[in-house]
Specification:
Distance between the termini: 36 Å
Strand content: 15-25%
Number of helices: 10
Order of helices and strands: HHHHHHHEEEEEEEEEEEHHH
Radius of gyration: 21 Å
């Protein structure tokens, strides 16, 4: 793998040299060990030598140009992952070299990990290869206009139709529309939608559903779907945050992620083994993002931990979400 020596601003290096602690030791601690620091730097040196990742003039880009460049960077990382046969943690290290969120960020960092965490083996066999090849590009539709990330208060419903063995996904109010998910405005053709599961008139709590929202050939919204971009955001010009409204959208029973909760086919009952797993995985999404931002403030170069993380401390923090 080609490498190049990293350059550090002399003023920054001067300030680092006056610290009361060993910068290199702290870096190793945050990376999870000296071996992981060396590997992170190898990945970064490669990334910084590739013209597509030169952001020196990015401040002059329009929002559309920033969005397109962000997508191109993610695709390039996917190509490098296949070329070098990187494990997932190396791909995350490469993703951290993109200095802004992109339209594909939630696909890699949330949509795919959610299927891995909450899907059955059969569901993972079906959906993960499609996501790997970008035939399915996903966003994570949780936040709603009236509820933010108050998980129990989300209003989107998924009502089970026994006669058709389908769920009917519905945004019953204005405040129930999904609002702000990254990658939703332009990029994704599927979402993991968080919705209240209703069967036989009973609310069985929040569950995750894979819902197609755009045609895979034309990329136009599917029947019953209203979706679009909510415009530019300060500090996030390259990400297409969007809105999403469901109007009696039918999805097959098997589109509910059923590793921990299941609507039985014949007895029409809901069997919930660990409802906590669903809530903790949703909460971990936002908490992990906060951890990543904090880490970027302290590390020599930004790093990305992925769904659970390389760091032993972070892995312990989210151990409840990593156990199966």
């Amino acid at each position: 793998m080609a490498t190049s020596k990293s350059r550090v601003n002399p003023d920054l290096q001067k300030e680092r040299s006056t610290g009361a602690f060993n910068v290199e030791q702290l870096t190793h601690l945050l990376d999870g060990g000296s071996r992981k620091t060396r590997r992170r730097r190898e990945i970064e040196n490669l990334m910084f030598s590739i013209p597509e990742f030169d952001d020196r003039d990015s401040i002059f880009n329009s929002r559309d140009e920033s969005y397109e460049r962000g997508i191109a960077k993610c695709i390039k990382i996917k190509q490098l992952t296949r070329q070098y046969r990187w494990p997932v943690e190396d791909m995350h290290r490469a993703m951290s070299c993109i200095n802004q969120d992109t339209g594909l960020f939630l696909h890699e960092e949330v949509f795919v990990p959610t299927i891995k965490k909450l899907g059955t083996d059969e569901q993972k066999d079906k959906w993960l290869p499609l996501a790997e090849n970008f035939e399915v590009i996903g966003a994570y539709a949780q936040t709603e206009l009236g509820h933010g990330t108050f998980l129990r208060g989300l209003e989107t419903t998924a009502t089970y139709d026994e006669s058709r063995e389908e769920f009917i996904i519905q945004s019953p109010t204005l405040s129930a529309r999904k609002w702000w998910p990254g990658g939703l405005g332009k990029t994704s053709n599927h979402v993991v939608a968080m919705a209240q599961l209703i069967t036989k008139g009973r609310n069985c709590g929040m569950q995750a559903f894979i819902v197609p929202i755009r045609d895979k050939k034309t990329h136009l919204p599917l029947p019953g779907i209203s979706v679009g971009d909510i415009g530019p955001k300060m500090g996030s010009r390259s990400n297409d945050h969007g809105y999403l409204v469901f109007d009696h959208v039918h999805v097959p029973r098997d589109n509910m992620l059923m590793k921990y909760s299941k609507v039985h086919l014949y007895i029409h009952a809901v069997y919930v083994t660990h409802q906590l797993h669903v809530y903790t995985c949703m909460s971990a999404t936002s908490h992990l993002r906060h951890q990543q931002i904090l880490w970027r403030l302290f590390t020599e170069f930004c790093i990305e931990c992925g769904p659970v993380g390389d760091c032993e401390g972070l892995r312990a923090t989210f151990s409840f979400c990593d156990k199966t």
